[in-house]
Specification:
Elements lengths: L3 E6 L4 H12 L4 E8 L7 E4 L2 E4 L1 E2 L10 E4 L3 H13 L3 E4 L15 H4 L9 E3 L3 H17 L1 E10 L5 H17 L31 H13 L6 E8 L6 E9 L5 H10 L3 E3 L8 H4 L3 H4 L5 E8 L9 E8 L3 H16 L1
Parallel strand pairs: 1-2, 1-6, 2-5, 6-7, 7-8, 9-10, 12-13
Antiparallel strand pairs: 3-4, 9-11, 11-14, 13-14
C-alpha cells in the first residue's frame, strides 16, 4: 500500500490532537507525519504508532514534499499558510471557517456529498461542527421527502471553544465544588458553569449570530439546496464535550414516522436511540454523556411537528454528537480517506 506524507497544521490543539488519533483509528497509510504548531510548541514530542514525532514550527517550508495537510488552526493562520501548502503540491482538508463558503472550495460531509471532493482545486473545507451534527441525520430524511425548512436550537458544549473552553469550564466546576470564587471567564462571554449563554459568534444580520447563519449557508452548499430556509438559535451549555440539537424539518412531500425512523436507523453515521418505553434513560434518547468520544450522531425523540398545518410534512427530532470527533477531526480524516481511495 502506498504511504503518504501527511501534515497536521495546529497539531497541539484539541482538534489537531484528535486528528492524530483518527489517522491511527482509520488506518490511514502514513509514511511520514509532520506535526506543525506555534513556535512555543516546537521541539515537543508526540508518540504515533510506536514512533516519536517532533513538533515543528509552522511555516511555508514545512509543507515541502507533503501529499496531504489537515488544517486545525484558526482562520488567520489557515489563510496565511494553507495556500502555501497547495503551492507545494499538497491537498488540504481544512477545519477552519476560512474557505468554507468559497465557491471554488468543496464543503464536504462524506455521508452526504462525498462526491464533491472530485472538483477540489487543492483545498477541501470541513464544515462547522453544529452543521455536521445536524445535517448527518437530516440528509436521509431529505432523500425521502425533500427538506425545505429547518428550525434548529443547538446546545453546544465547551469543546466548541477548543481546549481553552474545556479548561475554563473544568476550572469553574472545580471552584464551584470547593465553594471558591469562580475564575473570570476568558473563553466565553460569561460564566458557563450553572449557566447558558445564548450567543455563539458575533451578531450579524437581523440579530442572528455568525454561528447561527452557518447552518443555513453551509447546509445549502453541502446538500445542494440553494433555497433551504433555516432558523437557528445557538446556545453554549455547561457540557464538556458533545453538542446536542433540537431539529424540526418541513418537507415537500408526506413522510410517516415509520419511514423516518427506518431511514434514520439505516443511515450511515447515524444511531437511532428512540425507545420511549425503555427503563434506562440511556436507551430512551441520546445524551451528550453517551455520545462523547465516538463518531456516530445519535438520534431520538422522533415525532410529528404538531405545529405544522400539514402534519404529514413535519418531523421533529433530537440528536447528539461529539463535536471534536465527527464535528471536526473524524469528518476531516474521512474526507482524507475519500481522497486516498
Amino acid at each position: 500500500m502506498k504511504q503518504y506524507t501527511i501534515a497536521i497544521l495546529g497539531a497541539t490543539g484539541a482538534v489537531g490532537t484528535q486528528m492524530l488519533q483518527c489517522l491511527d483509528e482509520q488506518e490511514i497509510p502514513v509514511g511520514e507525519l509532520r506535526l506543525l504548531a506555534s513556535a512555543r510548541s516546537a521541539g515537543k514530542t508526540v508518540e504515533f504508532r510506536g514512533a516519536t514525532v517532533t513538533i515543528q514550527e509552522a511555516c511555508p517550508e514545512a509543507f515541502e514534499g507533503c501529499d496531504f495537510v489537515l488544517g486545525a488552526a484558526d482562520d488567520a493562520i489557515a489563510k496565511e499558510l494553507l495556500p502555501e501548502a497547495v503551492k507545494a503540491g499538497a491537498v488540504v482538508v481544512d477545519n477552519s471557517h476560512a474557505f468554507r463558503m468559497d465557491p471554488e472550495v468543496p464543503l464536504v460531509v462524506p455521508e452526504i456529498n462525498g462526491a464533491d471532493v472530485a472538483w477540489h482545486k487543492g483545498i477541501i473545507a470541513n464544515p462547522n461542527c453544529a452543521t455536521i451534527i445536524g445535517l448527518v441525520p437530516t440528509w436521509p430524511l431529505h432523500q425521502l421527502a425533500g427538506v425545505t425548512r429547518m428550525v434548529v436550537s443547538t446546545y453546544q458544549a465547551a469543546s466548541g471553544a477548543g481546549a481553552p473552553g474545556m479548561a475554563e469550564l473544568e476550572a469553574q466546576m472545580a471552584a464551584l465544588g470547593r465553594g471558591e470564587e469562580l475564575p473570570e471567564p476568558r473563553a466565553f462571554a460569561a460564566q458557563l458553569v450553572s449557566n447558558l449563554i445564548p450567543q455563539i459568534g458575533g451578531f450579524k444580520e437581523e440579530g442572528y449570530t455568525s454561528e447561527e447563519m452557518k447552518l443555513q449557508n453551509e447546509g445549502r452548499k453541502i446538500m445542494h439546496l440553494p433555497e433551504l430556509r433555516v432558523n437557528c438559535t445557538c446556545v453554549r451549555v455547561p457540557v464538556l464535550r458533545s453538542h446536542s440539537e433540537s431539529i424540526t424539518l418541513e418537507f415537500e412531500r408526506d413522510i410517516t414516522l415509520e419511514e423516518a425512523r427506518e431511514a434514520l436507523a439505516a443511515a450511515p453515521g447515524v444511531k437511532l436511540v428512540d425507545d420511549r418505553e425503555a427503563e434506562n434513560a440511556h436507551d430512551r434518547f441520546p445524551m451528550p454523556i453517551d455520545t462523547s468520544d465516538q463518531d456516530l450522531i445519535w438520534v431520538g425523540r422522533v415525532r410529528r411537528d404538531i405545529s405544522n398545518p400539514e402534519p404529514n410534512r413535519g418531523i421533529t427530532f433530537w440528536c447528539c454528537g461529539d463535536q471534536i470527533r465527527k464535528g471536526a477531526a473524524t469528518n476531516a480524516v474521512q474526507i482524507l480517506r475519500l481522497l486516498i481511495g
